[in-house]
Amino acid sequence: MSVKPDSPMGNPLLDEQDKKIREKLKQIDNKIMVMSGKGGVGKSTVSINLAIGLSLQNFYVGLLDVDLHGPNVPKMLGVERGELQRRPDGTVGPVYYSPNLKFMSVEPLLPERNSAVIWRGPLKMSAIRQFIYDIEWGKLDYLVIDAPPGTGDEPMTVAQTIPEAYAVVVTTPQEVSLLDVRKSITFCKQVNIPILGIVENMSGMVCPHCGKVIDVFKRGGGQKLAEELGIPFLGSIPVDPRIVTTGDAGKPMIASYPNSHTAEAFEKLIQNVINATQSLNAKIKQEKGSEKQKQED
Ligand SMILES: Nc1ncnc2c1ncn2[C@@H]1O[C@H](COP(=O)(O)OP(=O)(O)OP(=O)(O)O)[C@@H](O)[C@H]1O
Ligand SMILES: [Mg+2]
């Protein structure tokens, strides 16, 4: 087999893919991975409501579901068995949710709705890479990436494939979940993903009868931890039974009940994510500028 002499990985196919990935990523201004150390804390809920909220502010948004074992994005968006766009030039685009929100998940590629694929590490890596280099995302303001729990192959592949991605870490207020946040933060530091901040989900509940806040799983732990770790706190989302019903019905909360207290909490979170992204972008640009200056001096 002939190997290109200047190929650092010794594999021309991978080099070609890397080139395509870099080209595709250039068209996407901001990439945000939503992650957590623990399962079921609300990553997909936060990703979906964040993506829809951004799209409602007229941003061009992509939502990439890298949970290959349990892709929840299509169901939660109400677009199961969605059609990938097949274009006349033979390229393939993501599934449209609305004119300025498109998503990609492994689900449209599965032969049947309930198919279970056995994924091994390298296969996961190539699937996630393919979601970038083989899919025509077009120009996007934000790409929101919904990760499975933990610090395994999927977030690792995102970190390697999208080196300029930022992370949003979701937690619930319980001690155990907070402990797992520390692991996510350590992971981000190890793989060089700047952290936008922490979200506390299932943070108190507004009683539908008396309007008082009930601390179902306690409250405030996420904020305390953020302060302790010197990381921005992006916001709290209360427990709201409508999050389950709207998620199951494929009509996300922020779009179904835009005037609710919970939608307001999502709006605040989204604004904080936008602000944190802009200030990190500015900080990184400045750091790069002064590094270049140093080299020139
Ligand atoms: N604030 C909330 N109030 C009530 N229910 C919620 C809230 N956030 C999430 N849920 C529900 O909890 C369940 C788990 O949420 P979700 O799927 O978003 O978590 P996840 O972290 O993505 O899970 P996984 O680790 O399996 O990917 C869902 O049924 C969802 O509707
Ligand atoms: Mg999920």
Helix content: 40-55%
The percentage of residues in β strands lies in 15-25%
Q: Please give the CATH class.
A: Alpha Beta
User: Which structural category do the helix and sheet elements fall into?
Assistant: alpha/beta
Q: Overall pLDDT, averaged?
A: 90
Number of domain units: 1
Low-confidence stretches: 1-7
What does this structure look like?
- The protein has one domain (12-281): Rossmann fold.
- It has 10 helices and 11 strands.
- A hairpin with a 5-residue loop joins strand 3 and strand 4 (92-93).
- It has 297 residues and is α/β, with parallel strands linked by helices.
- The strands form 2 sheets. Strands 1, 2, 5, 6, 7, 8, 9, 10 and 11 form a 9-stranded mixed sheet that branches. A two-stranded antiparallel ribbon has the order 3-4.
- The structure holds adenosine-5'-triphosphate (ATP) and magnesium ion.
Secondary structure elements and pairings:
Blueprint: H1 12-26, E1 28-35, H2 43-56, E2 61-65, H3 73-77, E3 85-86, E4 92-93, E5 95-98, E6 101-104, H4 121-133, E7 140-146, H5 153-161, E8 166-171, H6 175-190, E9 195-206, E10 213-214, H7 221-229, E11 233-239, H8 241-249, H9 253-256, H10 261-296
Parallel strand pairs: 1-7, 1-8, 2-6, 2-7, 8-9, 9-11
Antiparallel strand pairs: 3-4, 5-6, 9-10
The structure holds adenosine-5'-triphosphate and magnesium ion.
Adenosine-5'-triphosphate binds at residues 36, 39-45, 67, 70, 72, 148-149, 201-202, 237, 239-240, 243-244, 247.
Properties at a glance:
binds adenosine-5'-triphosphate, globular, 297 residues, binds magnesium ion, alpha/beta, two-stranded antiparallel ribbon, 9-stranded mixed beta sheet, Rossmann fold
